[in-house]
Design a protein that fits this description.
The complex is a heterodimer of chains A (111) and B (114). Chain A is mostly beta strands. Chain A is built from no helices and nine strands. The radius of gyration of chain B is 13 Å and the shape is globular. Classes of the chains: A mainly beta (111), B mainly beta (114).
Chain lengths: 111, 114
């Protein structure tokens, strides 16, 4: 599984757009990028997944440049309830049975 | 929305005792997982399970651990002789299949070994 690097923490204010970048220089051709969110004392929750370019759902957008060596999770207009740890995972879609969670990015949203 | 349920939410046990953590995965899911998270640390993969057998396990999942699907709905993790360092939050997860990276996690069982 490709190693990922994310900032340890980020601060933001309510209403701002937050972009969290993940580096995955060793990403393989058949690897997908998946982001999870974890609130304190809860299990991780799937946010979004993509392979290239841009993916958007009701919660977030995921931007992946052409070389796929990094990806950016974009959270529009964050609220206090978005305070959580965000994990970037990289792995092959067909054998994604061993999710490797790195250290994640602790997002702290302030009023 | 369907969810993975885990019981108990908190278990306290004495060192050396056996514990069984229980999970009810989402009903049409085929793949099941156990993860653990020591306080303040990463979420660590323990084991994945498919078609009534272990498909992959980590170095953490040694002989003191076992998993079972005793009936059509439950998925259990047994720790035979608990150690202090087994204290952690244990998460069960399930997914429809391995071509889908959306795994659904339960709320976890906090295991405290004293």
């Amino acid at each position: 599984l490709a190693k990922t690097t994310q900032p340890i923490s980020m601060d933001s204010y309510e209403g701002q757009e937050v972009n969290i970048t993940c580096s995955h220089n060793n990403i393989a051709t058949n690897d997908y990028i998946t982001w999870y969110q974890q609130f304190p004392s809860q299990g991780p929750r799937f946010i979004i997944q993509g392979y290239k370019t841009k993916v958007t759902n009701e919660v977030a957008s995921l931007f992946i440049p052409a070389d796929r060596k990094s990806s950016t999770l974009s959270l529009p207009r964050v609220s206090l309830s978005d305070t959580a740890v965000y994990y970037c995972l990289v792995g092959p879609l067909y054998n994604f049975n061993k999710f490797y969670f790195g250290s994640g990015t602790k997002l702290n949203v302030k009023p | 929305e369907p969810e993975v349920t885990q019981t108990p939410s908190h278990q306290v046990t004495q060192m050396g005792q056996e514990v069984i953590l229980r999970c009810v995965p989402i009903s049409n899911h085929l793949y099941f997982y156990w993860y653990r998270q020591i306080l303040g640390q990463k979420v660590e993969f323990l084991v994945s399970f498919y078609n009534n057998e272990i498909s992959e396990k980590s170095e953490i999942f040694d002989d003191q651990f076992s998993v079972e699907r005793p009936d059509g709905s439950n998925f259990t993790l047994k720790i035979r002789s608990t150690k202090l360092e087994d204290s952690a939050m244990y998460f069960c997860a399930s997914s429809e299949d391995t071509s889908n990276t959306e795994a659904f996690f339960g709320q976890g069982t906090r295991l405290t070994v004293v």
